[in-house]
Design goal:
Layout: E1 4-10, E2 25-27, E3 49-55, E4 83-85, E5 88-91, E6 106-108, E7 117-122, E8 131-136, E9 141-145, E10 151-156, E11 173-178, E12 184-188, E13 193-197, E14 203-207, E15 209-210, E16 213-214, E17 221-223, E18 229-233, E19 253-257, E20 264-268, E21 274-279, E22 285-290, E23 297-303, E24 309-317, E25 330-332, E26 338-342, E27 345-349, E28 355-360
Length: 381
């Protein structure tokens, strides 16, 4: 038995963390590989690349050579990072002080993107202290940020690689999350599907159709503790949204993928623009908010033993609230408090449906992660 394998070294070092298929060791025939050559490169700088490879038993030289079909060198402008931002905390209830310490400031970790979505913290693993991944769906890229302030591109063509990509405003990945094994799961707008990134760099499609019809453009997603995946599917990733001729489903749905990945089930079609979603800490309730400027509501459903939903009710209504945008990303903490991208900023709502306060920053928030450098993160589950 023989295997194709190789390593790519940059200036005598082997990169450890990559987001492209194959990782630092190329596996299989025709496998693409990507390495970060350098940061802050200067004109005239010389960099040495070394490729060690074998296309058969190591002892079987010289026939165990490898082919390099093509190679490209990409340059990306480094964004500014680590700056404190103007922060206004609108206190609606004294209970907010237990979540957000008075005087808390927003820290800008990085900037210069077209749009940002789906942040998720990847815990500490060998050769890494953990890192933050987030999508730039407009730019079709997933970025990686590390606690030492380094920013790099984790995955290119994160949501689409079709020849008609110029027609899409947001072709890239959107929501990101991790499954029970720590594998990255992502919504791909342009490809109109939900996929999982395996350990070997390959993609597994978890959902792309329902009853034979293509999904709209999966937006956000969350796992239940039993391994079932829930995701929202509005048409906002399609070039013409609700009127796009590519649209096959007549509704915007909330779906469930069974733990074994064999069944995609439609749960509800009540909302025109289902977006952010979250389970209560005990998983008895399931929340979904609505991107619809005429109906800015959060729905709360009870969860059946089989994972389906029932008894949906309006949990909170922001329709009359001043401020731009409808409802977008949503997360929940260990006490059941909701964090919602709403009109004017980041709304914090208690498990009892009471508005505790709003954090207003220099830019409108659109999604949240479980580990962020704000004091409000201390109760995030």
């Amino acid at each position: 038995m023989s295997w194709a394998a190789s390593e790519v070294w940059v200036d005598g070092k082997l990169p450890r963390i990559l987001g492209q298929p194959g990782g630092p060791v190329i596996k299989g025939f025709n496998a693409p590989n990507r390495v970060i050559i350098a940061r802050d490169v200067k004109p005239g700088q010389r960099i040495q690349l070394a490729i060690f490879g074998a296309n058969g038993p190591i002892s079987y030289a010289p026939d165990n050579f490898i082919w390099i079909k093509s190679a490209t060198l990409d340059f990306y402008k480094a964004p500014k990072i680590g700056t404190e931002q103007k922060t206004e905390i609108l206190r609606a209830d004294a209970a907010l002080d237990e979540i957000v310490t008075p005087g808390t400031k927003i820290e800008k970790l990085a900037g210069g993107f077209l749009f940002t979505e789906g942040p998720v913290w990847v815990p500490r693993i060998p050769d890494s202290d953990g890192y933050l991944l987030f999508s730039d769906p407009n730019n079709n890229v997933i970025y990686r940020w590390t606690p030492d302030g380094q920013l790099s591109i984790y995955r290119t063509k994160s949501g689409y690689a079709g020849s008609d990509i110029g027609e899409f405003g947001q072709p890239g990945s959107y929501g990101l999350t991790l499954d029970r094994e720590g594998r990255l799961t992502l919504d791909q707008h342009g490809n109109r599907r939900v996929v999982r990134l395996e350990r070997n760099g390959q993609l597994t499609v978890l959902a792309d159709r329902y009853e034979g019809k293509r999904l709209n453009s999966p937006n956000d997603l969350v796992y239940k503790s039993d391994g079932a995946l829930y995701f929202t599917d509005p048409p906002f990733g399609l070039p013409e949204f609700f009127e796009d001729p590519r649209k096959e489903l007549p509704y915007s749905g909330v779906f469930r993928v069974s733990p074994e990945g064999r069944q995609v089930r439609l749960l509800t079609t009540e909302l025109n623009g289902p977006n952010g979603l979250a389970f209560s800490p005990d998983e008895k309730y399931f929340y979904v908010d609505n991107w619809d400027e005429k109906k800015k509501i959060i729905m709360r459903y009870e969860v059946n033993a089989d994972g389906t939903l029932f008894n949906g009710k309006v949990f909170f209504d922001m329709t009359s609230a001043p401020g731009e945008d409808a409802l977008d990303g949503m997360k929940i903490d260990q006490r059941g408090n909701l964090y919602v991208s709403g009109p004017g900023g980041l709304w914090i709502i208690s498990s009892g449906g009471k508005h505790l306060g709003t954090i207003v920053g220099p830019e409108h928030p659109h999604n949240f992660g479980r580990c962020i450098r704000l004091v409000i993160a201390r109760h995030l589950s």
